[in-house]
Amino acid sequence: MTDLSAHTLRYYEKIGLIMNVQRDATGYRQYTDSDIAWIHFLIRLRVTGMPMLKMKQFSDLRQEGDSTIVSRRELLEEHHQDVLRKIEELTLNLHKIEEKVEYYKALETTKKLYS
Predict the structure, then answer these.
(1) What CATH architecture applies to the domain 6-113?
(2) What's the pTM?
(3) Can you give the residue ranges of every domain in the chain?
(4) Of 88, 79, 76, 74, whose CA–CA distance to 49 is shortest?
(5) Is the dihedral angle over the CA atoms 49, 52, 57, 63 positive or is it negative?
(6) pLDDT digits over 78-109, tens only?
(7) Quick one: 2 exposed, middle or buried, by C-beta within 10 A (0-12, 13-18, 19+)?
(8) Residue 52: pLDDT over 70
């Protein structure tokens, strides 16, 4: 459903990232479609490297309502820029790795010629 462990879901609930989760008569959590959509968004933030404190800040702003829309947008724009910088850095590093792979391929070819 969310690909998060029960432990992580409980932790997110404990720190206030997930709030007001309904429970059935036996105490099991009952996530609504809205809860699941929010959890998937939290996963995207985490996977793209947003620190937990920033995620909590965003969640708190979300709970405050429409008066925080500008702040939420700004926080996401900042994260967007961070992600773009990481992509740039990863791309540069990937190119360097590709260069090294080509270097070793050339060495292999040279060795075969002289064997």
Answers:
(1) Orthogonal Bundle (1.10)
(2) 0.81
(3) 6-113
(4) 79
(5) positive
(6) 999 999 999 999 999 999 999 999 999 998 88
(7) middle
(8) yes
Q: Which residues contact 56 (CB under 8 A, 6 or more apart)?
A: 15, 16, 17
pLDDT of residue 49: 97
For every residue of the chain, which 3-state class applies, written as one string? CCCCCHHHHHHHHHCCCCCCCEECCCCCEECCHHHHHHHHHHHHHHHCCCCHHHHHHHHHHHHHCHHHHHHHHHHHHHHHHHHHHHHHHHHHHHHHHHHHHHHHHHHHHHHHHCC
**In this structure, are residues 50 and 43 in contact, taking their beta carbons and an 8 Å threshold?**
no
Distance in angstroms (rounded) separating the CA atoms of residues 45 and 77:
12
For residue 31, the tally of other CB atoms under 10 A from its CB is 16
